[in-house]
Design goal:
This protein is of the alpha/beta class. It contains 11 helices and 9 strands.
Length: 238
């Protein structure tokens, strides 16, 4: 299947990608309110998808639910019904299913979707996720990312551009990156000669996660677009 032009996608990221939605004290991360806020501002957003015990897809950053709900539990060890009935985000809302998010989103802004593999379940996530992603009309409105090469490798041949997430641990075992359409790199690693050379040769880098003016300056010099939180959209548009 034909992928969207990567330059077009990165052009749409130029004002920043809102990490876990455009969240704040009133709008919890990865909540419907945070996604609505990003859409209202016309900003792309990043979010995270997990597979439940009964093979349903739930939006949340961590595998563990304690930090965002105040109640212990692991998404992959719970059913969707348990998560919906027993857990709430800090604004009282339920965690969203992937299908709910797609219906609400309606391709109004680009989405960066991180696949959260859990003990090698990348292929199972793909089986559950593919029918939902097949509903998307414009392939320039979605990219897939993951720290797990396998979780995005299983999408080879599909129409989605894929980015390998790279942090401090991942850089130690970094191999051939030509397999991926782009890289998604911790901003503190951008000055590594491998990434400098990668960009010189035409590779695209999305950097994460930008929190302040200093990290913003580093990201602007070393990457083609950035994922941010805390910073205001106005600061990024300057």
């Amino acid at each position: 299947m034909e992928k969207a032009n990567l330059q077009k996608i990165f052009n749409s990221f130029q004002n920043g990608v809102a990490h876990r939605g455009l969240h704040d004290d009133a709008r919890p991360e990865n909540s419907k309110a945070a996604f609505a806020h990003a859409i209202e501002e016309g900003l792309p957003f990043e979010t995270d998808v997990h597979l439940t015990k009964d093979h349903r897809l739930v939006i949340n950053h961590d595998h563990e639910l304690g930090r965002v709900t105040g109640k212990d539990g692991t998404i992959e060890q719970l059913t969707l019904e348990q998560i919906k009935s027993d857990y709430r985000l800090k604004d009282g809302s339920q965690l969203m299913e992937m299908g709910e998010l797609i219906s609400f989103w309606q391709e109004r802004v680009p989405m960066v979707l991180e696949i959260k593999e859990y003990f090698g379940n990348g292929e199972d996530i793909r089986k559950a996720l593919k029918p939902l992603l097949d509903q998307i009309k414009d392939p320039s409105k979605l990219v897939l990312i993951s720290f797990s090469p396998n979780a995005i490798r299983v999408w080879e041949g599909d129409r989605w551009n894929r980015g390998l997430l790279i942090g401090g641990g991942e850089i130690a075992t970094l191999g051939d990156v030509s397999e991926w359409e782009f890289l998604d790199v911790d901003f503190t690693l951008l000055q590594d000669p491998r990434f400098v050379e990668y960009r010189k040769e035409g590779g695209k880098i999305l950097s994460w996660t930008i929190h302040d003016e200093n990290s913003l300056s580093i990201a602007k010099k070393g990457s083609d677009a950035m994922t941010f939180e805390i910073l205001s959209p106005e600061a990024l548009r300057k």
